[in-house]
Amino acid sequence: MIDAALVERLARHQTVGAAPRDQLEWLVSHGRLRRLAAGEVMFKTGDSIDSLFVVLSGHLSIRVD
User: Fold this and answer.
1) Cα 16 to the chain's mean position, in Å?
2) Which of 3, 11, 14, 27 has minimal CB crowding within 10 Å?
3) Is this prediction's pTM over 0.85?
4) Contacts of 42 (CB under 8 A, 6+ apart)
């Protein structure tokens, strides 16, 4: 079952909100929520990244060391 509330959040998102509803539903049905604590590192240099990430709340800083 698709999380309708999450589809609605994506529909209001400034980056992905313009996508057709069926595509937003696909993202929700194939994705997963990931919560990060303040200061937590998502990836490190050299990590393989094979996903799309959408920030629903808060902000994300990108640093290259």
Assistant:
1) 10
2) 14
3) no
4) 36, 53, 60
- Whose tokens are 């996903």? That residue is 51
Q: Provide DSSP, 4-65.
A: HHHHHHHHT-TTTTTS-HHHHHHHHHH-------TT--S--TT----------SS-------
| Residues 2, 29 contacting (CB under 8 angstroms) | yes
- Write the CB contacts of 25 (distance below 8 Å, at least 6 apart in sequence): 2, 7
pLDDT of residue 65: 77
Distance CA 4, CA 11 (A): 10
